[in-house]
């Protein structure tokens, strides 16, 4: 096995209670990620890591293996990396070989496509970096505040948005990490770090009820196009 896909989907959610099972376009949010992951051609094995029985039932109904996540890895403050390593250990403990790569697919990116997942994996398999991260382009003018004073991060940018040099933000849509480096460093983003640019709609990240509405509107527009 070369590539292990891990969908971390705990039961708790501070911003939107029950977020991973909340309906989006007639299906639980989680299912949109599972469908894309199952359709990706370069994922050899896919698991959902969860502490929640209802989430586990949805995953199994979709034909996805479940790794039972211990309570200490399912708190609001728990980091993603130990969850990924726990999932990898569970797969290896079941008699499967250590994966070379782990793909992290958060349920909060329901508009990602199987093609995007494969693009990220193709880049990783071809270039052999430490990790691959998806990024989204922005031409916003960012800065910081000290009291009431505003300081631009990049002074002197043109006032017209179209004339600014693009910046990129981590989108959280797909992460590909070399397993050996994840074990050594405890980090998902390992150097050398490569990137894949996502389309605006694929970069939508669900963290609020408004995000659900936006994602549903985009899905309706997709069906109507």
How is the secondary structure organized here?
Layout: E1 3-8, E2 23-24, E3 27-28, H1 29-39, E4 45-50, H2 53-61, E5 65-68, H3 80-93, E6 101-104, H4 114-127, E7 131-138, E8 143-146, E9 149-152, E10 167-178, H5 179-185, E11 193-197, H6 209-224
Parallel strand pairs: 1-4, 1-6, 4-5, 7-11
Antiparallel strand pairs: 2-3, 6-10, 7-10, 8-9
Molecular structure report:
There is one protein chain. By secondary structure, this protein is of the alpha/beta class. It has a single domain, classed as Spore Coat Polysaccharide Biosynthesis Protein SpsA, Chain A (Alpha-Beta Complex). The strands form three sheets. It has a seven-stranded mixed β-sheet with strand order 5-4-1-6-10-7-11, sandwiched between helices. A hairpin with a 2-residue loop joins strand 8 and strand 9. It is globular, with a radius of gyration of 18 Å. The N and C termini lie far apart (38 Å).
